[in-house]
Predict the 3D structure of the following.
Amino acid sequence: HVDGGVTAKDIKHQIEHASCLACKNWSQGICSTILFFDECNTSHDALWLAQEIMCDQTCDGDSIDAVNKYGMKIVIACNPYRLHPPELIARLEKAGLGYHAGPKVSEQGMIRLRDLVYRVHPLPPSLQVHIFDFGSLSVSVEKKYSSLIIQHMLKDVTKTIGEYEGLERFFTKLICRAQDFMRSCKNEKSFVSLRDVKRFRDVFLFFADHIRNKELGRILQAKEGKKISDRDLLKFPVVCALGVCYYLSLSPDNRENFLHTICDRADDCVLGSPRNFNRLLTLVMSIFVKELRPLLKGKNIAENAAFSENIFLFIICSELRIPLFLIGKPGTSKSLAKSIVGEAMQGRASESRLFQDFSQCIHVTYQCSPLSTPEGIKSVFREASQYQKDKDISEYVAMVILDEVGLAEDSNTMALKSLHALLENGCSPDGNVETGEVNSTNKVSFCGMSNWALDPAKMNRGVLVSREEPSRDDLIFTASGILHDLGENILDKQRLKLIVDCYLQLLEIQQNTNLKDGSPEIFGLRDFYSFLKTIAMKLQIGQQDSDRDVNTAILYSILRNFKSQNLSQTDPADIFINALLPSGFVQNTVNPLDLLKDNIMHEDPDGTMPVRYPLVITREPHIVLTMLKQYQGLTDEMEIIYG
């Protein structure tokens, strides 16, 4: 398998190894030995050496004797060099923080990698005459392969839920319709393959086992108020498998269309209506979130849809070693879900009886950047594999987490191409990427988190979830959840709605300015959450409840979280002040250094009111920091380190 880190030296080594193997095979009566280079055009060095090998049958000027003497054949596979459709490029530019790439065409006439279906180099002209277009599986052939996977699955299903008439036909139609729907989407979710079918099989069997034999089934039985029937043993796993592999990856609009496609045309006695599908999936997700509530207590965390879905996907993908990609702007609960699940999944040592049925999970984190290399990525998988060595992999799982994985896509070495083999087969503790039959002890779990849009063609190797901007209703629900611990009457619903409307107005102004002159979007969800928590902090400190006290807390929170000067034509603070504070309210003058001092001196022993790291934009940063150090009220022990 070729990736961006493969050099000409590596190719020569493989040629020598294959030549020795071909000689050995020839002596044993085996007439053909095939050397196969997969994804050859991901490496510039490998591609040009492959051109020499294919056209001249030489390697760096030396003839390859095994080709003529011992029947060695050389085959290379390349991904096509073609653009995404304009609609998909526009969609990717809106995902997370969008693209952060240069012009669409470089000075050398090269198309930027982010606009390509596959991030590869164009083939040399002399190699193009050797092209054979393999194409892709037709719908009928994919259906046959899917049917074979389902037949294999049913051998285990009948052991769990018993015989069920027409089961193979039901599953085949269900999966084919799900695949067809995803393929019809004009966005990054259209990249589906037989990997999705295999993931469906794994998730279905997992839930069928846990609902029948373990704590999850007992909790569901209590929630439903009746004994779990054989029909339920089919219904719940089907809904959860569709949810993990397809439904939760879709945008809200596409989710509704997906359910109408699946539920209206499937066996109604199994799935029921779209509303019933949503009820069942929400019920299962709520069970996992409820078991985590002791870890959330007092932290002012709202159990909104994004948080619940991230938690659910993290747990299931960790347990089943299904690669997971979470894409979204800061504040979409990616890191929060990771830390909470890591704390909860302690195997038999877990406080929750539900999580005692799951593996103990350890996270191995790597911070990606445009300087990331294939070897750096492989080293993280090697470390994770080392953690699993000599352990029972049914009770222990290591999870590789690539943080800011979108930044590594800008690497000149195409570092993320090394993920292909690592996600499929894993990496041994001594660093060898597995080939051929997969060694289950070496395969680890994986999650890639990014604020930026990712290469969709690569992401079909796992579950891809792109978080869009939350709706107005989602924001109101989240705001209510954050302030819940203070009591329902601290901020009335009308004022909460005004806060949300001000934030949405600010987002719209930022987006329009960004489209007009490329100005960055400075304020986002984390500022919105911090604004609410600052109000909570000010009201908790004094236990204040009068209108003036609340208005004072709101003003302070506005100035601390949304006040900016000369960063945009519109001052964000004015949007909130004009809408939230009465016209006659007297604004006390607030020194910006007071706000900065409060942020620096802020303490958060229990994680309830997290600290925000201030970014001071000024022409004379040393002077500002010196003034701050000398400012009245700051401790003498504070030390400033210049970097």
Remarks:
- The beta strands are 33-37, 58-59, 62-63, 72-76, 324-327, 360-367, 396-403, 445-450, 463-466.
- The radius of gyration is 28 Å.
